[in-house]
Amino acid sequence: MHENKETANPQKSSVNSGVAPKYSPSRFSVAPMLDWTDPHCRYFHRQLTRQTLLYTEMVTTGAIIHGKGDYLAFSPEERPVALQLGGSDPAALAQCAVLAEQRGYNEVNLNVGCPSDRVQNGRFGACLMGEAQLVADGIKAMRDKVSIPVTVKTRIGIDDLDSYEFLCDFIRTVSEQGGCDSFIIHARKAWLSGLSSKENREIPPLDYPRVYQLKRDFPHLTLAINGGVKTLEEARTHLLHLDGVMMGREAYQNPDLLAQVDRQIFGSSQPVVDPVAVVRAMYPYIERELANGTYLGHVTRHMLGIFQGIPGARQWRRYLSENAYKAGAGVDVVEQALSLVADKIPAGI
Fold this sequence. Notes:
Belongs to the Dus family. DusA subfamily. Belongs to the dus family. This protein is 38% helix and 12% strand. By secondary structure, the chain is of the alpha/beta class. The chain contains 16 helices and eight strands. The chain has an eight-stranded parallel β-barrel, surrounded by five helices. Strand 5, helix 6 and strand 6 (182-186) form a beta-alpha-beta unit. It is globular. It folds into two domains: 22-264, Alpha-Beta Barrel (TIM Barrel); 275-344, Four Helix Bundle (Hemerythrin (Met), subunit A), CATH 1.20.120.1460. Helix 3 (90-103) runs parallel beside helix 5 (132-143) and helix 5 (132-143) packs parallel to helix 6 (164-178). The chain has helices at 39-48, 61-66, 90-103, 117-121, 132-143, 164-178, 197-200, 208-217, 232-238, 249-253, 261-264, 275-281, 283-291, 296-300, 313-323, 331-339, and strands at residues 28-30, 53-60, 81-86, 107-112, 150-155, 182-186, 222-226, 244-247.
């Protein structure tokens, strides 16, 4: 990925370009998802929604500071975009937050929700819920160095530390001692042992009322909810109680849902973008990435679900899956896949 000031989106004029937003981008966001929300994914999602806040995959402070690759690379067209950090050392977090601000990120978010063993071994993620003061110290260290928002994504509890009082104490410590005024709450607790990361997204029961209560008890904080949100109708229900909603896998697997977000969640009057036009809006970006040595399939794997529910969607997915990783595969492969579905899309979609 290379930052490039030239916008490669011919649809930019047909959406909310130049219009002052009515709501904060954090009103609706796409969750950080490891191996999924990479720069290619975010660029694609931005073609569908102008106002949604997009998140990077979680990036560790060690990778940013000591890694050989550029873990902060993104395209300016992705904005608004937030960097999610994994780490617990306040000095390292502050150093990475400064780098993120210099690169143009709109927000830095600290991961206090991932329960995987690998994350725990690095002393970050959900295990940090048991170290509220350390989280507060990390947030304060970042806030002292940057002017962009510094936020926390967390769970409602861990293991047997799952009382409402425990959650309130965590929020109170991090907000008062660290200065954090914005939290995304995954409405499940996490089991730090015995469950896989996937199981931790499904087995612990959702407790939306607990998050609603948190907003009533901390009305001065900006609180968004995450976990199990599958429709925009559900998102609007949550917004009756909270400041924001974060959607994860549903937004990824059914990305055309994002085309409705600007109108349904942000109140935009702009027309919904056409999925065929969205695919073709990706062509200049794809050409740019191919020139940089990227395989076509690394971009198109994020686009497979855009025609979900439309006749020809299966053929679209199959053709791309079978051909996008072949040597020399280019935009012509996407155009051929598009021909299998484009004429089957009902008028008005």
